Amino acid sequence: MPKPKLLMIVPVKWAGLAGSALGAADVVVEGKDHYDPSDIDYVLSFRPQAGLLASLPKLKAAFSLGAGVDGFLSDPTYPKHVPLVRFVDRTLSAEMAQYLLLQTLIHHRMQRFFDDCQREGQWRQRVLERRTEETHVGFLGLGEIGSFAAAHFVELGFPVRSWTRSRKAIPGVTSFAGKEEMNAFLGKTDILINLLSLTRETVGILNAKTFAALPQGAIVINVARGGHLIESDLLSSLNNGHLAGAVLDVFEHEPLPPESPLWRHPKVTVTPHIAAISQPAVVLAYVRDGIAAFERGESPATVVDVNTVY
Hints:
Elements: E1 5-8, H1 12-15, H2 18-21, E2 26-29, E3 42-45, E4 61-64, H3 70-73, E5 84-85, H4 90-108, H5 111-120, E6 137-140, H6 144-155, E7 160-164, E8 173-177, H7 182-187, E9 191-194, H8 208-213, E10 218-222, H9 231-239, E11 243-248, E12 268-270, H10 280-295, E13 303-304, H11 306-309
Parallel strand pairs: 1-2, 1-3, 3-4, 4-5, 6-7, 6-9, 7-8, 9-10, 10-11, 11-12
Antiparallel strand pairs: 5-13
């Protein structure tokens, strides 16, 4: 019986790992190997070219390189009968939680101020501007990664709140749901963390209206997608003093262009989409196991309900 064929649309450095990690499938790499579209059973990618998946008549499933799947569903021709599997890894969730805790504590504990003092050789003690139990951390989106991270903020004594489409029941987290509760959620959120999926409803959700609803001196952390953020609105809110700072790991255009004012803004921390990076060997193992499940007639637990979620 012939092996199923997997089309990998990935960085070239991944291709060399495929042979050992995907022994149950024949692998072809987009841009490197010749293949017949009618032979492809599975696809692994992050943001495949629009129309590509629709051109694969035998496609059984598509695997995402990350937890987000907007790179697939931004294609209006995506064949919605094809199961779409997102990557979920506890290590990846832990790394994201580490990043969020790190960036939150840098602001909460005023580390930038003490960095300046060190550079100037000045011994200057300073009391926290807000006690931990008075600093509300709010999560926009509370899926696998958000729930994992939120639990650690709760352990550190932060009041934690979340906003989602439907009500969540997570110990220690105050849940807000639906458009009618958005302003109540934002009104007491001192540190806003965006983990939403990028959909038609969430594009540009980090905008002037959202920022204005936050308390004076709030911090915004975006680790979801660059398309969530209206950069000009963020800069205006920072410059007029309403927001105290922003941490950005994702951008509308990546790499972030050298001329972007975000690089040099004193209230902005920029990192190059590294909050949590998928390890090739781990991703390929998840694809191997996913293909095996489909070939047995089963469905992996992380299949996205395309019609409901997006």
